[in-house]
Amino acid sequence: MSPPVVVDTIQELREQLKARAGTGRVGLVPTMGALHAGHERLLDRAAAGCSIVAVSIFVNPLQFDREADLRQYPRTLEADVATCARHGVDLVFAPAPREMYPREQACTIEVGRLADHLCGRFRPGHFQGVATVVMKLLQIVRPDAAYFGEKDAQQLAIVRRLAADFNVPVEIVGVPTVREPDGLALSSRNVHLRGAERALAPALYAALLEARRLIEAGVIEAAVIRQAAESRIPVDDLLRLEYLEVVEPDEMQPVAQVRGTVLVAGALWVGATRLIDNILCRPLEGKV
Amino acid sequence: MSPPVVVDTIQELREQLKARAGTGRVGLVPTMGALHAGHERLLDRAAAGCSIVAVSIFVNPLQFDREADLRQYPRTLEADVATCARHGVDLVFAPAPREMYPREQACTIEVGRLADHLCGRFRPGHFQGVATVVMKLLQIVRPDAAYFGEKDAQQLAIVRRLAADFNVPVEIVGVPTVREPDGLALSSRNVHLRGAERALAPALYAALLEARRLIEAGVIEAAVIRQAAESRIPVDDLLRLEYLEVVEPDEMQPVAQVRGTVLVAGALWVGATRLIDNILCRPLEGKV
After folding, report:
1. For B161, which of A107, A132, A161 is closest by C-beta distance?
2. How far apart are CA A106 and CA B111, in angstroms?
3. For position A286, what pLDDT does the model report?
4. Contacts of A109 in chain B (CB under 8 A)
5. pLDDT band at residue A270, thresholds of 50, 70 and 90?
6. Hey, are the CB atoms on B111 and A113 less than 8 Å from each other?
7. Complex ipTM above 0.90?
8. Minimal C-alpha gap between B251 and chain A (Å)
9. Residues A139-169 as b or e (16 or more Cβ within 10 Å = b)
10. In chain B, what's the furthest Cα-to-Cα distance?
């Protein structure tokens, strides 16, 4: 397997894609780098569905609401390219911010109500920044399919809606979350977790599992489900639950009662690190 | 010359485009119908530059800030198709609102500061609606070039910025305004002008010409230029000047002094009809 071609300009990327035009489906895996096994699942899924796989590695300033988070976000390009090589990636696009935003981005994507809750409520402008850079990447690469992790469920829902609302001819593929043995969802931010923090971090997934257990047992009141789930977060100075919500899975609107498939999603601060996770829950047949 | 194929669904349009793929450049002329000689200039320009010309005819509800304006906007599909046939158009895409907006458009384009002045200031949401539908049409048709009239100068500037900001691989072509012998810019809304109104309507262009005369004579103070131009609008109960501004031509920001090429743009209410027009003005060499 030959190593990927690494380019940092839009023009080079388009030339590389043009040289491969007509040889099969093009798959895009948009990432911010610091690739982990969750990303590897995306790469494998793209390779299975497409003959040309392009990976973008770009820490998008537009989607960071905290300057410190942007500054500290792990950047590991060399290792990322090696990971891409192991998974049969053809093209790595790793532009500098100036290449993506040569001047002020005057036109941006407004995502509306899908960003009103969950992370969108706590990270003003975040999903506008995500949707804007995703739209740019979709125009630059023009892939047949684009791959996103289900760990970022609200992001995935917004990207799906973005593509549908703007009639972008691309298949948006969601790829299941990869977890550590203790349940912690893989995230590039996990590298920031120190000893005691790492031990506490799986509490978020434990809370989500408790929510699913209740839903599958026939509990329908979201308030009850939330309270039971939140009780699984230990009382600890290192932990602060930002939100834990029960929402319908397309438009990410909170529900008062579970009347069909719902998404239970949460954000937990562990020390100075913010972790998110979610779980799709289907009530048992005959219980709704 | 064979008549155009007329379709009203996105799927049919894409099939028609796919059947013609690889046979040459695709040009898109987005319109709201009620085609006049100004549009015909767009069609001819597209036909000159492209081997496949698609015309969209869609009165876009998203860009109307006044319900009455949307309701009264002239709709003349049969005549429009005949006009397209005379100008060698290959495809006419005339979707119903439900085809373009099958559900609430959650994601929209925010256009930022380019919409802060001129029409954007007086028509809240208008350019967001324009940019949104243009982005949709660019994704549906994926043209190599798209053609817009210079009469709508702010719209043209926003569409150029939209394509650049989102890296849409399309050439945006501006086509000069077509005028009646007395200077009135052609517009689909001119059909609403009654006798006395029609006689007064060229006042807007006369005002713009006066602004250009001053600028070419070396006047640089925008306030002076505006005042002189506005004095060309007769005092009449039928006329109300909404704005007349001197702006730089890329980001549509007002200038206090003319230090290079500027756009002078105005909106004039003539009875119940709102007309817009503009003129690009270059100061004489050595005068700046």
Report:
1. A107
2. 6
3. 56
4. 107-110
5. very high
6. no
7. yes
8. 9
9. bbbbbbbbbbbbbbbbbbbbbbbbbebbbbe
10. 57
Rounded to whole angstroms, the Cα distance separating B48 from B43 reads: 9
Q: Are A163 and A170 in contact (CB under 8 A)?
A: yes
Instruction: Note the Cα A106 to chain centre separation in Å.
Output: 25
* Per-residue confidence band for A2, with pLDDT thresholds at 50, 70 and 90: confident
A85-110 pLDDT tens trace: 999 999 999 999 999 999 999 999 99
CA angle B98–B100–B101, rounded 5-degree value: 60
Marked catalytic residue, from B36, B39, B117, B192? B39
Neighbours of A251 (CB within 10 A): 17
When pLDDT is averaged across residues B98-126 and rounded to a whole number, the result is 97
Shortest distance between the Cα of B164 and any Cα of chain A, in A, equals: 9
The 3-class SS string of chain B reads CCCCEEECCHHHHHHHHHHCCCCCCEEEEEECCCCCHHHHHHHHHHHHHCCEEEEEECCCHHHCCCHHHHHHCCCCHHHHHHHHHHCCCCEEECCCHHHHCCCCCCCEEECHHHHCCHHHHHCCCHHHHHHHHHHHHHHHHCCCEEEEECCCHHHHHHHHHHHHHCCCCCEEEEECCCECCCCCECCHHHHHCCHHHHHHCCHHHHHHHHHHHHHHCCCCEHHHHHHHHHCCCCCCCCEEEEEEEEECCCCCCECCECCCCEEEEEEEEECCEEEEEEEEECCCCCCC
**pLDDT number for residue A81:** 98
Question: Nearest C-alpha of chain A: how many angstroms from B101?
Answer: 8
A161:B106 CB<8 A:
yes
User: What domains appear along chain A, each with residue ranges and CATH number?
Assistant: 5-175 (3.40.50.620), 188-279 (3.30.1300.10)
Q: Which pLDDT score is estimated for A288?
A: 45
* Between residues A203 and A285, the one the model is more confident about: A203
User: For residue range B33-61, what is the model confidence (pLDDT) as tens digits?
Assistant: 999 999 999 999 999 999 999 999 999 99
Nearest chain B residue to A163 by CA distance is B107
Residue B161: list chain A partners with CB under 8 A.
106-107
Selecting from A139, A161, A169 the residue whose C-beta is nearest the C-beta of B107 gives A161
Within its chain, how far is the Cα of B130 from the centroid? 10
d(CA B130, CA B121): 15
Residue carrying structure tokens 């329908």: A220
- Which residues of B make CB contacts under 8 Å with A? 10, 14, 104-114, 128, 131-132, 135-136, 139-140, 142, 158, 161-162, 165-169, 251
Q: How far, in Å, CA of A263 to CA of B49, rounded? A: 50
Per-residue pLDDT of B232-280, as tens digits, reads 999 999 999 999 999 999 999 999 999 999 999 999 999 999 999 999 9
pLDDT tens per residue, range A69-78: 999 999 999 9
pLDDT at residue A50 tops 80: yes
